Amino acid sequence: MTSLGWGGVGGKSLIGGSDDDSTTATPPQAQQKQDAQPETPSWATPPVPAPTPSGKATKGKGKGKGKQGQQRPKGDAPPVVPVASQTVDGVEPGPSQRQLNTRLDDVARREAAVRQREEHIKELEDRLKEGGIQVKPKNWPKCKPILYHDIYAEIPTPNQPVCKAGYYCWMISVSAYIMNFLTVSIQFFMGQGTLACFIFAALAAVTGIFCSWWTVYQSLYAALKTNGGSFAYGKYFIHKTISILWALWTFIAPPIGSLACFVAGLFVMIDQFSVGGSKGAVGGTLSIINMVLWGLVLLLALYEIIWTFSIWKKGGGLQDLEDQQRNASTAAMVFQNDTVSSAAKRLFGGAPRDDGIKF
């Protein structure tokens, strides 16, 4: 028995019956097409994001969703992985193989350029070394190398201890310059100093730190490389004597002029304690700390210059000085010659003369 639908369209038998006495509304050709194209399973279909009023896809928050908003089927089917070339549930598309190859080629090109530059620099350094010019790498200070400084490599072994003493003396002097500036600054902001003293203390700190390196320590560094060279040691002795006088001045801080307060020394300390109160106590205590640092600089500088003088004397410094005096006497005798003097007068308009100065 069959159930007839409207318009004579019937369906399959609901209870019993066979295929012969049942009629269908689907023709045989359509049935073959449906058999040829089976339905796609639900778990194999990528989820379609729901549109929002702003035009952007929203992330689902249902039971069938994963941690990243991926749709999961109800059964045991695997989760749907979004395609890399499409943006699904907020997953950005990954780079293609062509983009990866382009990036790798760019990295390889840059590495080759850096390698060529290094080879070129090395070739230039080799040429300089062959010509007698030694290229020294920058290694000081360690945080930001701007200079080459190596006591063990450039200073002879017997002269290395005094060079280390000079280096430590410079570092202590840097601390003393900074402490002096801080002391004067605090005294100024507490109303115990003037603006001129503050400015001059800043100038003294900056100028003193750089000059103590380029003049005092570098002259010692250059002198210790030689074997008692009179010129190099003489340059060091002049610079070191000036630095010793400055350390003595800073330690005492004599009240001379209106700018005597730009160094916090002995007399400044007395003035600070004479003010009384907490401000005077703070200013006087800072002055004492500053005096201690400058006292250490003064003592170490005296020890260093005496030590350097003994090295210069043992290294032939006095003999070198006598040789230079002998050469100067010979040169004076040459210029006393009438022929040389007349030639010098014709060329330069005058000639050196011996006015009783004995070499």
UniProtKB/TrEMBL annotation:
GO terms for biological process: protein transport. Pfam families: SCAMP (PF04144). InterPro entries: SCAMP. GO terms for cellular component: plasma membrane; recycling endosome membrane; trans-Golgi network membrane; transport vesicle membrane. Residues 1-98 are annotated as: Disordered. PANTHER family: SECRETORY CARRIER-ASSOCIATED MEMBRANE PROTEIN, SECRETORY CARRIER-ASSOCIATED MEMBRANE PROTEIN SCAMP. This is Secretory carrier-associated membrane protein.
